[in-house]
Amino acid sequence: MQQMSKISQKSSTMLLPSSKHILAILILVTIFTTSVHACGPGRGIGGPRKNRKLTPLVFKQHVPNMSENTLGASGLNEGRINRDDAKFKDLVPNYNRDIIFKDEEGTGADRVMTQRCKDKLNTLAVSVMNQWPGIRLRVTESWDEDKSHRNESLHYEGRAVDITTSDRDRTKYGMLARLAVEAGFDWVYYESRAHIHCSVKSDSTQTNHMSGCFTGESTVSTSTGERKTMSQLQVGDEVLSMTADGNTVYSEVILFLDRDIERIQEFVKIQTDGGAILKVTPQHLVMVWNPTKKLMKFVFADQIEEGDYVLVNRFGTLEPQKVVHLSAILGKGVVAPLTREGTIIVDSVAASCYAVIDSQMMAHWTFAPYRLLATMHHWFGETNSVQNGVHWYARALFSIKDTVLPSSWMYH
Ligand SMILES: [Zn+2]
pLDDT tens digits for 192-223? Predict the structure, then answer.
C-alpha cells in the first residue's frame, strides 16, 4: 500500500507540468499523432521518397536483405488461394491502363492481386512513366493458379508480381527494381535477367492499423504478488514495469491502447539464453541493451537480431540476456496495456507500451494529456468496464491523419 501511494505520488508530480510544458505537449500531440499507433504496421507510409539518389539493384540482389517470408520483408505464407476459395473474393482485379498485363494464360489471372499489391503496383506504374517517358510498366505474372512456382511462392496468394518495362530493355531492370522498392513493395528481387519479382505483406496484417501488441496468454507481475495473463489484466492493476534509468517499479495500467482477446495475429517470438520468451507484434518496441556502449535503446521487435541483448527481470533486477532464437508465430489475443511509466515487463522481458514510432520518449509524451486525464478519473472515482477494441483516446490520435512526419521517425 505504501509502495502504491509512493508511485502515485511520483506520477502526480510528473503530471503537473507548467503551462509552458502543457503547451509544448499539446503542440507535440498535434504534430505527432499519426505516429502513436498501439501496434499498427506503419509500413508503406510515405510513398516514394524525394531527393534521394536512386541506385539500381544488381542481378540477384534483393531488398530488404533478408529472405522473402520473414516478418521484416513480406511475412509468413498464408496458404494458396484457389479460384473457388472464400479468400479469392478478397483479391482484386487491376485494370490500370498504364500497366501492360502479359496475360499469357489468357485467364486474366495476371490482373488478380491483393489490395496492397495493387496499390504498390499502381504507384510503381507512375514512377516508371516518370523515369522513362513513353515507357510503361509490364506485368508478366501475378496471381498464379497453375502451380508454376515453387511451393511457398507468394504468387499463389496474389501477393507477388513479376515485372519488366514495356520495351523489355534489360538494362533498365536494375533501376526498375529500385523504383519498386521506392514504390513500397515489401520485398523486391532481381530474380532473373528477364524480370523483377516483387511481393508485399498480406492484407490481413495491413488492414488493422491499430493491431495489438502482446498475446493474450503473455503474463505480467502485479503489485499484489499475483501473476496475471494479459487477458485477465484490468485498468487500475499495478504491473511491473521499468523506469527510465532501468530499474523496476510497479506502475498502474491506465488504459488499453488495444484489446481483443479473440483476434489471431502474427507475433515475433524472442527467446533468450536464460530461457525467457517474449511474444510481441513485429512493430512493437522492445528494450535492447548494448553491452559495449553500455546503452539501452528501444528497437522494433522484428529488427532485433540473434546476439542482441534484451533486459530480463531476475528477482526485481533487470539483467541483459542474449537473444538466441527469433521466429514468427501466430498467436491468439492482442492486448496493449498502457502503464504510467510507458513500459511493461512481459514474461520477464522489458518492453515499451508503444509501437510504430522509433522513439519511446515521443510516444510517451503524446499520451501525457491522457495520463493527466486518468489521474483525474482516479480522483472522481470513475469505474472501468471491460474494453474491446481500440481505446477512444488512441483512436482519436489515430484519426488525425494528415500530419507531416519525418519519414525517418516512422516505422518502415
Ligand atoms: Zn515471381
Answer: 999 999 999 987 765 443 444 788 999 999 99
Ligand 1 center–CA 160 separation, angstroms: 6
Of 186, 116, 190, 103, nearest to 146 by C-alpha is 103
Ligand 1 center from residue 144 Cα (angstroms): 10
Cell of 343: 513500459
CA-to-CA dists, residue 199 to 142, 161, 171, angstroms: 10, 6, 22
CB atoms within 10 A of CB 408: 9
Cα of 79 to ligand 1 centre, how many Å? Answer: 16
Query: Regarding the domain delimited by 2-41+209-409, which CATH topology (the fold level of the hierarchy) does it fall under?
Result: Endonuclease - Pi-scei; Chain A, domain 1 (2.170.16)
Grid coordinates given for 67: 529472405
Q: Please tell me the distance between residue 356's alpha carbon and the centre of ligand 1 in angstroms.
A: 30
pLDDT at 170: 97
Domain residue spans of the chain: 2-41+209-409, 62-206
pLDDT-derived band at 100, boundaries 50, 70, 90: very high
Q: What is the mean pLDDT of residues 112-140?
A: 93
The partner residues of 309 in beta bridges, in order of sequence, read: 289, 322
> Residue 54 gets which letter from DSSP?
P
Q: Report the top-level CATH class of 62-206.
A: alpha beta
Average pLDDT, the chain: 77
- Please give the DSSP secondary-structure letter assigned to residue 45: -
Q: 86: which 3 cell numbers?
A: 472464400
Centre of ligand 1 from the C-alpha of residue 197, in Å: 4
Q: From the CA atom positions of the chain, what is the Rg in Å? A: 23
- How much is the average pLDDT of 104-111? 85
Burial class (CB in 10 A: 0-12, 13-18, 19+), 9: exposed
Which has the closest alpha carbon to 198: 121, 144, 137?
121
Distance CA 348, CA 316 (A): 10
Q: How many CA atoms lie within 13 A of 314 on its CB side?
A: 10
Tell how far the Cα of 165 is from the centroid of ligand 1, in angstroms: 15
CA 56 – ligand 1 centroid, Å: 19
What are 222-260's pLDDT values in tens digits?
Answer: 999 999 999 999 989 999 998 877 889 999 988 787 788
How far is residue 247 from each of residues 206, 230, 294, measured CA to CA in Å?
35, 22, 15
Residue 378 has pLDDT above 50, yes or no: yes
Q: What are phi and psi of 126, to 5 degrees?
A: -70, -45
